[in-house]
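Give me structure tokens for this 81-residue protein.
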Amino acid sequence: MTQREVTDQDNLTWTCVQAYAGLEDKAAEKATELTETEEGTVTVVCTPSGGAQTVRLQLPSNWLEKTSDEELIQQISQARE
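Here you go.
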């Protein structure tokens, strides 16, 4: 399962992973197909290291490669508001 870790201005480390990424092979592919929107976004779940609440984000399907740490932190911040 591929994940990303980012640390925000409050010094919270967030671990972000695409929903259903822990499934194996064909099940993971099918889950990704079913959860990808028409706009090409997928659900990403970010879990904090501290007492903050987990957030769900809608990010481009290529978020692992194309979304910068700063953009990811900004999306998390907006989701927490």
